[in-house]
Design a protein that fits this description.
Elements lengths: L9 H13 L5 E5 L6 H13 L12 H7 L6 E4 L8 H12 L8 E5 L7 H12 L5 E7 L7 H4 L3 E4 L5 H10 L4 H7 L6 H9 L3 H17 L1 H13 L7 H19 L12 H7 L5 H19 L4 H14 L1
Parallel strand pairs: 1-4, 1-5, 2-3, 3-4
Helix pairs in contact: 1-2, 4-5, 10-11, 10-12, 11-15, 12-13, 12-14, 14-15
């Protein structure tokens, strides 16, 4: 894949193509943004263009170096991923040995590091020394969704390339074009930062069922307290879905937000579009302030779970709060 073919991220691609066209290639880049926004795809496309011998602001796809890259035969490209929970000192030392091999070569070497924020202190210090004193022409591409967790001295030596969340409308169109279920896609694009994350969510076991549970509880939770408590117990906490309380609350937030969208005449922005008739009948039964309060109760339940309150207890308290208004 070339840079131009990577979906979205217009600003990031513009920066990288200017770098290539001007020849002002830095020794380190920090690709910073939420997971699923195409950081790895653009890192690989940029690396391919760096090896391309045709010049210009993108890989030509035809020269020997491009063909080697496309067939996975580029010996001067190295990739580093966390070993377990972190990138360790031994991995950086091994990278340095790999990059030092054939130091007489004038060919540029490139390495891509995933989850750079997970580097241990020792690994970070070792990488810093490597950035300051490379043994050959080298470009580092560091990927992170938490730049503040990267050693400040490393951040200061790298050009930051920002990756922004994809607009939901753009992601939805792409997912639908590739044949993903429309109703699931409408929900997934509001829960993920990028197309890859949305696609993974759609394919996740239980996502479709969780959506159905949210619809049932969204309806019962406002007027049928006993029925809602039984549904939560039987369809949520007595099943594997009970382990995905964060997903449940995120979808429930979208349910209440749909009530506000309907009141405001923004039906095209609704997530639970298949429930338009029911929502249309009930959305005006309460004020916008009421629906906002329902969202606040839902967010509070998420905070309680994060504070180690049992998910079932937090959800049951949420249902009590919704019933009380």
């Amino acid at each position: 894949m070339n840079i131009a073919a990577v979906p979205g991220q217009t600003k990031a691609k513009r920066i990288l193509q200017y770098v290539l066209k001007s020849g002002k290639v830095s020794h380190a880049y920090l690709f910073s943004g939420p997971s699923g926004t195409g950081r790895m795809a653009l890192a690989l496309a940029f690396a391919k263009a760096l090896f391309c011998t045709a010049g210009g602001d993108d890989a030509c796809g035809e020269c020997l170096e491009c063909r080697k890259f496309e067939h996975g035969n580029q010996p001067d490209l190295h990739r580093v991923a966390p070993d377990g929970a972190s990138v360790k000192l031994g991995q950086i030392q091994e990278l340095q040995r790999e990059m030092a091999f054939r130091t007489t070569s004038q060919h540029r070497k490139v390495y891509i590091m995933e989850h750079a924020e997970t580097m241990t202190v020792q690994a970070s210090n070792s990488l810093l020394k490597f950035l300051e004193e490379p043994l050959s022409p080298t470009v580092a591409i560091l990927l992170t969704d938490n730049p503040l967790a990267v050693l400040p001295t490393i951040r200061s030596r790298a050009q930051i390339i920002p990756f922004l969340p994809f607009p939901p409308e753009q992601m939805l169109q792409e997912l639908v074009n590739e044949g993903q279920p429309h109703l699931l896609a409408r929900a997934a694009v509001h829960l993920a930062s990028g197309i890859d994350g949305a696609r993974q969510l759609i394919q996740q076991n239980g996502f479709a069922e969780m959506r159905n549970v949210v619809i049932q509880l969204g309806k019962e939770g406002l007027t049928r307290f006993t029925a809602a408590m039984i549904t939560a117990q039987q369809r949520l906490f007595k099943t594997e879905l009970g382990e995905q309380s964060e997903l449940f609350l995120s979808l429930l937030l979208l349910w209440f937000k749909d009530m506000i969208h309907f009141q405001a005449g923004r039906q095209e922005k609704m997530v639970f579009i298949d429930q338009s008739e029911w929502i249309g009948t009930h959305a005006f039964a309460h004020s916008v302030d009421y629906w906002v309060e329902c969202m606040e109760h839902t967010l509070e339940a998420g905070k309680r779970i994060a504070a180690n309150v049992a998910p079932q207890l937090a959800v049951e308290q949420l249902l009590v709060n919704l019933q009380e208004g």
